[in-house]
Amino acid sequence: MPSKNLDPTCTPDWKIAAEAEKTMKTVFTLADELGLKGQELIPYGHYVAKLDFDLILKRLKKRPNGKYIDVTAITPTPLGEGKSTTVMGLLQGMGYLGKKATAAIRQPSSGPTFNIKGSAAGGGLSQCIPLTDFSLGLTGDIDAITNAHNLAMVALTSRMQHEFNYGDKILAARKLKRLDIDPRRVSVKWAIDYCAQALRDIIIGQGGKMDGFLMESGFQISVSSELMAILSIARDLKDLRSRVAKMILAYSKTGQPITTKDLEVDGAVTALLIKAAKPNLLQTLEGQPVIVHAGPFANIALGQSSIIADLVGLKLADYHITESGFGSDVGFEKFWNLKCRSSKLKPDCVVLVATVRALKMHGGGPKVVPGKPLDRAYTSKNGTLLQNGLGNLMAHLEIVRKSGVPTVVCINHFNADHPDEIALIKTAMQEAGARVALSKHWSQGGKGALDLAELVIDACDEENDFKYLYSANVGYKNKIETIAKEIYGAAHISFTPKATLKIKKLEEDPDTKKLGVCMAKTHLSLSDNPALKGRPKGWRLFVRDILVYQGAGFIVPVAGDIKLMPGTASDAAYRRIDIDVKSGKVKGLF
Question: Terminus-to-terminus CA distance in the chain, angstroms?
Fold first, then answer.
């Protein structure tokens, strides 16, 4: 546990983490406290381990699940509003109350870690440690996703080259069936785990016939790969293997899908994911167990910690906290209608994180720019901006309530927040009939989250009427329009001719006619336009394309100008990350 003398207002996160790491528990102590047995723990050094979920779930099959809690948020500023910090704080608060609790969070992508958003380990006195291990590759899960994804691309592009260069007799001699892959209909790009805008669109295969097939291509960030979604949604290795085989990479010239199975690479791709399928065990600053598994980005991906991590946490603890990416319009909606539908799990409580800062922005406050100091409007009392921004919080509260799950609104406290502003939010939420807690976990750790933890425990004991937003049997346009109107508040929905044609073909194919819907939409607005703040009215959702993630079990309608490869900012975090050459320790992470 970090020294009580460390003040997070003037001490960077990495220094707080470094102090706590001097006395943190070993993974063996964590395992004993969780009741793990023998080979169920696979150590990666003294402070990180993988969990053999298959052994754990078999042994604890008859044990009742603990209470299931999801943490989501309102529409954030570009800085984020402390959702991961709240997960850590709530878990630490549960520890203060003597509750046996676990949490599951997503592994950070190197893209945001080295860019502007940081590693998503939490912050202040509510963090996941060891910070360096957590932030810089952990046990290699995202590397495995990247390699497996690119192996599939190697199989695809080499087959295209061979089919172009060889006749049917040579292909037959090599036991290769001609697939007639259409180079204009390759549906995935190469993967790299950085925000590399220069690689979004490229030309590959330049040179002679031995240098590949000449075609347009590009890169997507690794965590947007369908394989990451499959890792998040799979229940076991058998399920993982089955889903990988269904992954569509391209289409033939007659419109037939080309899968990893067609390319005979599905087994090899799965082989690269065996270790990645096992979740990772870390801890909070105060020594509570944190399960880290799967990846981020609910605006362009599923954005959930894995079902496997949640199944393990629910068997090991009385309370298990999981996290959904970004606001409730993207992350929670996918948790609710995709992850819960696949896992058959029913949440007992949802925590909705709000900040004074974000509400002021939604109330018309000045633009928030990462790397630049906040405008005085955000660091001094301004009840007018706050009042005007409450509509965004109300919209998110209504979204969560549509699921039928009891909700606790958490006001994530920043030091500049004025008591009158906190009172204004509390009054509005109480008038709306919501449980609401001011939580000071960032500055006080678990002790500052006691009110939040007590309200969550109370909410978990309440009967709930959990229900999905839409039936799995309705058509895709119906599903998309339901999400757009009921969740985002859109007045109208438009589809490009390309998107409409893709939907028609998907619904004509019995293998793809009843998949879920995983929207790709900006996280910076309830709408598909990041510039529209607050609670936009009368706007039109524009669906310009449909991606097919058959292995994961959903389609991805692409709304607005959303990209699968983010860009790196001019003042990126890598400028401040370095090592201490004497100790070998990393500094500057946040």
Answer: 18
Q: What is residue 483's DSSP assignment?
A: I
Q: What is the average pLDDT across 302-313?
A: 96
Q: Is 522 a catalytic residue?
A: no
Q: Is 298 a catalytic residue?
A: yes
Residue 372 annotated in active site: no
Which of the following is catalytic: 106, 189, 315, 502? 106
Residue 3 has a pLDDT of: 52
Q: Where are the domains of the chain?
A: 41-140+276-460, 141-271, 476-559
85 included as an active-site residue: yes
- Cis omega (within 30 of 0) on the bond before 130? yes
Q: What is the pLDDT of residues 59-104, one digit of tens each?
A: 999 999 999 999 999 999 998 899 999 999 999 999 999 999 999 9
State which fold the 141-271 domain adopts.
Answer: Domain 2, N(10)-formyltetrahydrofolate synthetase (3.30.1510)
Of 25, 99, 117, 360, the active-site residue reads: 117
Instruction: Indicate if 504 belongs to the active site.
Output: no
Is pLDDT at 530 greater than 80 in this prediction? yes
What is the fold of 476-559?
Formyltetrahydrofolate synthetase; domain 3 (3.10.410)
Per the annotation, the verdict on 582 as an active-site residue is: no
The active-site residue, picked from 85, 113, 259, 522, is 85
Residue 303: left (phi > 0), alpha (psi -120 to 50), or beta?
left
Q: Is 117 a catalytic residue?
A: yes
CATH class assigned to 41-140+276-460 = alpha beta
Contacts of 52 (CB under 8 A, 6+ apart): 39, 40, 41, 42, 278
